[in-house]
Amino acid sequence: MAEYEEWKIYCYDEVTSTNDVIKDYCSEPKQKIVVWAKNQTEGRGRLGRRWQSLRGNLFFSCALEIDMADLSGLVILCGLSLCQIIKELNPQNLVQIKWPNDVLINEAKVSGMLLEKGPNDYIIIGIGVNIINYPQAIDIIYKTTSLQHENITISPENLLKCFISKFNANKNLWQHCGNNEKLVASWLKFAKGIGKKLLVRQNNVEICGMFQGIDANGCLLLENEQGVCHIRAGDVFYTEEN
Ligand code: BTN
C-alpha cells in the first residue's frame, strides 16, 4: 500500500474489477481509498456493458464517504479533472466530455467512468483510461482511441497521481464555494454538443432534443416540444455536426 496526498493506494497486478475489490477496504470510516490494477478480468462499463481491460491501460477505483447531496458534484468533478489533465498533457488535442462522463480526444472515447454505491456511506468511482491500447471490436458503438494514439506519453502510475492531485485541488475549490455552479460552468466548457440536437437512448426508449447543458444534479437537459427533460441515465448520440 502506498500513500499519496492523503489517499491510500492499493496496487494489484490483476483483479476481477477494481470496483469490486475496493469494497473490501471500505470498512473503516473517513478513508480516501484507491485500488489500482494493471489488469482486470471482469471490467465493467456503464449500463451493464463490459469494459475491455487491455494491459498497459489504467484501471482504478476511488472510494470516499460523501453526503448523498454531494454525489452529483463529485461525478462532475471526476470528469472535469480528467479532461483538464488530458488537455494539459497535449493542448493541441480537442478534449471533450460526452455526457455523462466519457472523455473524448479528437472525437474518440479515451476514458469512461462507472459510479457505484459502496458499503457504508462510501461511493465508488471506477475509471478506465486507454493509455496505449484501445478496443477496436466491431460491436463497439463509439470510436475509441488511446492517449498514445493522440500523442500523449504517460505511464499509468503518473496519470493516476496527476488525477489524484487534480481531483483534490478541484474538490477543495468546490467545497470552498459551497455549490455546484462554478463546477458545472467549467464542465460545460468541455461538453460536446451544447446547443445541438441529440438523441438519448434509454433501454428501448429514444428521446430527441436540443442539448441545453446539465443541471446542478448532473442530469442532462434536453429541450423539445414537451419542454425541458432532465435525464439521469442513457446513451447520447449526436445527430447534428458539432
Ligand atoms: C463506461 O464508459 O462504460 C465506464 C467504464 C468504467 C471502467 C472502469 S475500469 C476501472 C473500474 N473497474 C471496472 O470494472 N470498471 C471501472
Q: Which keywords apply here?
A:
242 residues, 5-stranded antiparallel beta sheet, SH3 type barrels, binds biotin, BirA Bifunctional Protein, domain 2, 2 domains, alpha+beta, 8-stranded mixed beta sheet
Distance between the termini: 44 Å
> CATH superfamily name of the largest domain?
Bira Bifunctional Protein, Domain 2
Global structural class = alpha+beta
Radius of gyration (CA) equals 17 Å
- The order of strands across the largest sheet is 1-2-3-4-8-7-6-5
Determine and state the CATH class of the largest domain: Alpha Beta
Summarize the amount of helix as a percent range: 10-25%
Give an overview of the whole structure.
This protein is an alpha+beta fold and 242 residues long. It has helices at 18-21, 71-89, 156-177, 181-190; strands spanning 2-4, 7-15, 32-40, 58-65, 95-98, 102-105, 108-117, 122-129, 197-202, 205-214, 220-224, 227-231, 235-238. It is 23% helix and 35% strand. The strands form two sheets. It has an eight-stranded mixed sheet. It has a five-stranded antiparallel sheet with strand order 12-11-10-9-13, with no helix packed on it. The protein is globular and about 55 Å long. The model has no long low-confidence stretch (mean pLDDT 92). The structure holds biotin (BTN).
Write the layout of secondary structure elements.
Layout: E1 2-4, E2 7-15, H1 18-21, E3 32-40, E4 58-65, H2 71-89, E5 95-98, E6 102-105, E7 108-117, E8 122-129, H3 156-177, H4 181-190, E9 197-202, E10 205-214, E11 220-224, E12 227-231, E13 235-238
Parallel strand pairs: 2-3
Antiparallel strand pairs: 1-2, 3-4, 4-8, 5-6, 6-7, 7-8, 9-10, 9-13, 10-11, 11-12
Helix pairs in contact: 2-3, 2-4
Bound molecules: biotin.
